[in-house]
Design goal:
There is one protein chain. The protein is of the alpha/beta class. It has 4 domains: 2-145, Rossmann fold (3-Layer(aba) Sandwich), CATH 3.40.50.1390; 162-304, Putative Large Serine Recombinase, Chain B, Domain 2 (Hect, E3 ligase catalytic domain fold), CATH 3.90.1750.20; 314-334 and 362-550, no CATH class; 558-703, Glutaredoxin (3-Layer(aba) Sandwich). The N and C termini lie far apart (105 Å). Helix 14 runs antiparallel to helix 15. Helix content is 43%, strand content 17%.
Length: 707
Amino acid sequence: MKTAAIYARVSSDRQKEEQTITSQTSALRAYAAEHGYLVPESWVYEDEGWSGATLVRPGLERVRDLAAQGQVDSLLVYSPDRLSRKYAYQVLLLEEFARAGVEVVFVRAPRVETPEEVLLVQFQGMIAEYEKAQISERTRRGKRHRARCGVVNVLSGAPYGYRYVRKADGELARYEVLESEAAVVREVFRRYTEEALPIGAITRWLTDSGIPTRTGKPQWERSTIWGMLRNPAYEGTACFQKTAMTLREHVRVTRRLRQRGGVPVHPASLRDRPREEWIEIPVPALVSPTQYALAQTRLAENRRFAARHTKIPSLLQGLLVCRSCGYAYYRTSTRTSRRKLFYYRCLGSDDYRYPEGRRCTNRPVRQDALDALVWDEVIRLLENPSLVRQEIDRRLAALRTEHPITVKRESLVKTLGRIRGAIARLIEAYQEELLSLEELRTRMPPLRQREATAAAQLGAFEAELMDAETYVTLAQSLEGFLAKLHEAAQSLALADRQRVVRLILKEVQVGPDTLVLRHSIPVPGNHPDPGYLLRGRSQDTAPAETEIYSDRYLRGSVRFLAEDRGICDAPLLRLCPLPRPVSASHGDGGLKNMPKGLADQVKVVFVTTDPTRDSRKELRSWLDRFDERFIGLTGSEAAIEAAQRAAGVPRARKIALAVEDYGVGHASFVLAYSKDNLAHLIYPSGVTQQDWAHDLPHLVNEAWSNR
């Protein structure tokens, strides 16, 4: 007696409910008993709900393993399309089983012995594959048509908070609100948008409160809450055709994959379609459009700024973008003999991430220097409250004309007009006796339902517009708030600095020699030059971005420039040119943290390399904002060039950018001048405020006071 295994498969939940797999198994058992096959109970394999278009199925995998081990003589299958819906897969499996010496027997097909029988089975496989493709295409087009007609039965059931009502008595299928669940949905959105609770905290609250899930389970999962917050049905528009299966454009080479030396098995992945391709179906709304929009904004920000496994957060986390290749920057570190240095590095510059090698040649950037530079520029920007007021006024005007709620409201007005026009035409057709009363009763209720839903959404949109206008109104104490922010700028915790920076900046673009800050608030042309922004403009307004010329400073090779020796007998620390405002704020912080007697012995001198821009009055005005003890020097371009040569540093140069627009490239060193009038290189690379506070007392007390 031959040993045999049984394999059965159904691909849909509906087939599972109708127990068609049971009928397959019963027919196969009867066939085995009739033809003398011995089938152990453990050799009956069933794949319920698995598509025949894929080879990766649990039951089929076990059958293939059994055949490879040589334990089975025959495999009983109901029909070729149960083995696979694809002809190529059928041929592959039949050849594999044949090599293992396993006979494949189809109950609903002729035995495969002669070439003619083999050809017939192959034809059946091709026909089954064609039939599947035809059914899939017809189903897709039919669902898309019904979705455009506003029918909800194309969706996969009603989400939490609704009950799916099947079509009956001439009425279309619809969603009905379950108030007990709808209250939970509203509370989830409120806690997430108003209280800013994380998804994990909301999940714990639902579980601790004993609120059951849709399936009656007491334990809630984060993925459920995440899906709830992303579902547009809760704002009144259930969407069809949100995702699509696409081929992978680039192979993601993970560490585990590199160790195996392989490539991903699945060439396709599920991706979100563009928002304009979604088909909206009106349903009753549970939350307001503004609340839903706030939730989407926060979800996007959380994904962008997610700390994940970051042990030490950084100020510009999630904001840095490479100007050369468009990839994001991440933080890395390296150790020297003295300390651990942190850098921002472009993802595209890593060889190991891409099979074809690195995609970018942009170099790493020192984290401490870049963080300080950007933070001081943000504080400088906030020193002008009128900018913030102008931005609020601009956004309020845009709210009334271009806000998404306004656009949706206009679209909804048109939709409501079309529905009411259809109702009027139906009534007119009935009055003209072109339509029977029975037909009117059948066709009118769905239109009335759509009219009521659209009218309710329109009222909600109008209320939200009024709330949004109130929401963007500033308090009268704006100037006081900004003044307090500036006073506490250097003492704010990192988390508070991150929130301020993310409100002001959209992104920070890092180039080989430039840095661009893309602001959320437009910067006027007469705005004071920020740190490393050495440019001039005659226009009244500038674009909402700042271009910063760093000239290798951020690469760790140079820092400040010291010039013009012999000003006083005390130890002299000269910081030039003005890497504004980083050097001033750091120098100021360093002096304030020194003992009073030692601070009086140090003279900090700034020498400009752009006398065209920095007159004596402007230089003095700017330095007074940090410390009146700071000394500012300027002069003719020839004198400054001679001082640079004497200091042994490269000459500063102007860079023509556009009409009435220029930049200044300069070297940056820190040199200390002792009483014997000798220059000593102190910092050839980046220095922080903590470095100033720590090092200045030692420079005065130890090595330098006796020179």
